[in-house]
Amino acid sequence: MEYINTKNWLVRPAQLDEAIIQQAAAMIKKGGLVAFPTETVYGLGANGLDRKAVAAIYCAKGRPSDNPLILHVADTSMVKDLSRNLPDKASLLMRKFWPGPLTLVVPKAKHIPVEVTGGLDTVAVRMPDHPVALALIRASGLPIAAPSANQSGRPSPTKAEHVQADLQGRIDAILDGGPAGLGLESTVLDLTSKVPVILRPGGVTYEELKEVLGDVIIDPSVLGKKLPKDQVPRSPGMKYRHYAPTSPVILFEGEPHKIKTAITERAQALLAQGKKVGILATEEQAQGYPPQAKILKLGTRENPTTAAASLFSRLREFDQLHVDVILVEGIATTGIGLAIMNRLRRAAVEKFEC
């Protein structure tokens, strides 16, 4: 594709530069692509009502066209224009969790471009909890379609430099608002069935949703079941390999001490073959692995939000270390751990139960 002179603007979330926001919004209104920070990861934004602009997102990312996008709004009133029949549960969830890392899948309005929905009769919407994102949406006066601002399949970007590494020269501008907070994408919840279905776990946990809604189902794809090749995914992150660094990821799940034993044995065998090995370990178990391996700490098992915040950055760090393979410790799938393990299972080329 043609090289674009990407503008890089530093923005302070606590003290926004209105001139920069207005320039970025003008790009959106003209059909351009602008990367911006949210509380989850950086998003690649375009006018969600402009078919050509939305198509440009897929081109810039190299994203499969049947992988639907999320429309980002600045207030709940915008949602009413995007859905032809907003489910009753949507209002309850918006009051409880918005702005925040929860995406709702609802019946789409007729004017929503097919490029946004991946050919589905539903649309995914959310209100981000970040001053830069909200200011950009308000200034543009449009719902902004925005997947993560990275090359398709790569680890999602949690810093502006990650966006620059993947998309510099392919998009119009990057708003650098500092590191994203949560570090994982939003939870995607389908409200079009009788019982709401989690299509992608994220910042709002299954336990939190169950407390509010009572009945909630976790889609089998979240737990690792593959979608049929001819089935259109109902949410980002359901069908294709995602979140993967350049080096192959091997994931080990089970009891922590068994995981450490298995990774140690695999690392020793690979090192003996002359391979450069990376190990992504929890704080509790990082000591005692073969010293020749490149060891990065993921966070703590006791507080998995630390693992969520560092996961994608750590995977990108292994690329810079040029390791041949990455061995990763799995964690428990309770709370935010379900989202962390969903991302790791999507990234892995091999998985072992210890």
Summary?
With 354 residues, the protein is α/β, with parallel strands linked by helices. It contains eleven helices and 16 strands. The chain has two domains: 7-223, Alpha-Beta Complex (DHBP synthase); 249-353, 3-Layer(aba) Sandwich (Rossmann fold), CATH 3.40.50.
Description:
With 354 residues, the protein is an alpha/beta fold. It has helices spanning 18-29, 51-61, 77-80, 88-97, 114-117, 131-140, 160-167, 206-213, 256-272, 305-321, 337-347; strands at 7-10, 34-37, 42-47, 70-72, 102-107, 122-126, 144-145, 173-176, 187-190, 197-200, 217-218, 249-253, 277-281, 294-297, 325-329, 350-353. The protein folds into two domains: 7-223, DHBP synthase (Alpha-Beta Complex); 249-353, 3-Layer(aba) Sandwich (Rossmann fold), CATH 3.40.50. The protein contains eleven helices and 16 strands. Helix 1 (18-29) crosses helix 6 (131-140). The termini are far apart. The model has no long low-confidence stretch (mean pLDDT 94).
**Nearest-angstrom radius of gyration?**
20 Å
Structural class: alpha/beta
User: Roughly how many Å apart are the termini?
Assistant: 45 Å
CATH homologous superfamily designation of the largest domain: DHBP synthase
Approximate shape:
globular
Quaternary state, please? single chain
**Helical percent range?**
25-40%
Mean pLDDT, nearest integer? 94
Architecture of the largest domain in CATH? Alpha-Beta Complex
Question: Can you tell me the CATH class of the largest domain?
Answer: Alpha Beta
Strand content: 15-25%
